[in-house]
Amino acid sequence: MEVYFDNSATTRVYDEAIDIMVKTMKEDYGNPSSLHLKGLDAEHIIKNSSNKICKVLKCLPEELVFTSGGTESNNMAIVGSALAKKRTGKHIVVSAVEHASVSAVMQFLIREGFEVTYVPCNEKGIVSPESFADAVREDTILVSCMHINNEVGSIMPVADISRAVKAKNPNVYFHVDAIQSFGKIEAIPKNMGADLMSVSGHKIHGPKGSGFLYIKKGTLIRPIIYGGGQQKNMRSGTENVPAIAGLGVAVDKTFENFDNKIGHISSLRNALVEGLTSIDEVYTNSDITNGAPHIASISFVGVRAEVMLHALEDKGIFVSSGSACSSNKSKESAVLTAMGLDKKRLESTLRFSFGEENTMEEVEYAIKTINEMLPVLRHYVRG
User: Fold this and answer.
1) Residues with Cβ < 8 Å from 22, sequence gap 6 or more?
2) Spatial distance between the Cα atoms of 237 and 229, rounded to a whole number of angstroms
3) CA dihedral 259, 265, 270, 272 (to 10 degrees)
4) What is the mean pLDDT of residues 272-295?
């Protein structure tokens, strides 16, 4: 039996998204900048996907830029707005539990002469609006915060954060990394008070190499890729039309029967957490009541995370030992450390993340397998 519980790392692409991508590559292969019919057909595909996304975001087509995914969207939002506003200030505020595609950008900006203030989280992995507001100054130009933490699933109060920071300094731009939240909980930029919002396609059964950045109309931002001036000069280079087509279909399908899908995903997560935490010295680091519906961070005290991960893999169960996007797999999680977990739990934590294609049968198989496996692994380690 194969059980894929690593949907926060990536998802299987919808069949319908694959079909439209293949059709686009075979039939609608024109350059969307070309003036002939093939080019117009390709441009129509881009507009069609844009309209689908804008319907969900409740935004205007001109507020959308297609990117290669979440990392580029985050880079474009942060670097682009920092460069555009550096004459008014060089101070940025960010949470201490961001994904590497945000935290690494902050290190780059520090080297470029910007000042960054990191706001700590509480024991549930949540950063408070008051903490953000306290960190904002007169020369603050940007605040950036993830909507859902990719490791433990904590949901940040982004709308309250936006209100708090803008009350302190109305000229501050607010960027939301919605890569883990889009398609899981409501993520509408205007409702969150977001000037910028990043989304990745492969987290919602779209193709890898697809994503978009929402840029609120009137927001000053410089491009970070220069060339032929595509996408209103915001991202030069010939658009990846097949990926954009697949992304549009993925967005459409993600929001079909949305409440039922999320209810199903949440019930799977709850069942897994309940089944596993009944085992001695197994703990959840996720807030099951108020956290994201699709993520469960579990610590199996007495067994290192890597050992547990590969033991599960041998049984056909695929999970993650934290963020899949980090190249330094052995480094202890900054998120779990910031939450105050002790070393035994830090070293033994795995992330289980669920998608609409998972089943209760898979959850029951995982619980049964771990029940049988854990005592053996602990005996081996301690012996």
Assistant:
1) 242
2) 7
3) 170
4) 97
Q: Shortest CA distance to 248 belongs to which of 40, 8, 14? A: 14
Could you tell me the maximum CA-CA distance found in the chain, to the nearest angstrom? 72
Helix (H) / strand (E) element for 284: namely strand 282-284
Q: 326 falls in which pLDDT band (50, 70, 90)?
A: very low
Q: Is 325 an active-site residue?
A: yes
- Per-residue pLDDT at 328: 46
Residue 290: name the closest of 158, 126, 155 by CA: 155
Label residue 381 by pLDDT band (50, 70, 90): low
Of the two residues 135 and 324, the one the predictor is more confident about is: 135
Q: What angle do helix axes 37-57 and 241-254 make, rounded to 10 degrees? A: 30
The answer to whether 164 and 155 are in contact (CB under 8 A) is: no
Under 8 Å between Cβ of 184 and 258: no
pLDDT surpassing 70 at residue 327:
no
Say if CB 355 and CB 292 are below 8 A apart.
Answer: no
d(CA 323, CA 326): 6
Average pLDDT for 240-261: 98
Catalytic residue among 54, 59, 121, 325: 325
**Residue bearing the bigger pLDDT, 60 or 333:** 60
| Amino acid of residue 311 | A
Parallel/antiparallel/unpaired status of strands 211-215 and 196-200: antiparallel
pLDDT at 153: 97
Q: Rounded to whole angstroms, how far apart are CA atoms 51 and 47?
A: 6
Closest C-alpha to 341, from 283, 273, 290: 283
Residues 6 or more apart whose Cβ sits within 8 Å of residue 375: none
> Which tens digit of pLDDT belongs to each residue from 165-215?
999 999 999 999 999 999 999 999 999 999 999 999 999 999 999 999 999
Q: 177-188: buried (b, 16+ CB within 10 Å) or exposed (e) per residue?
A: bbbbbbbbeebb
316: left (phi over 0), alpha (psi -120 to 50) or beta: left
- Run of H or E residues at 142: strand 140-146
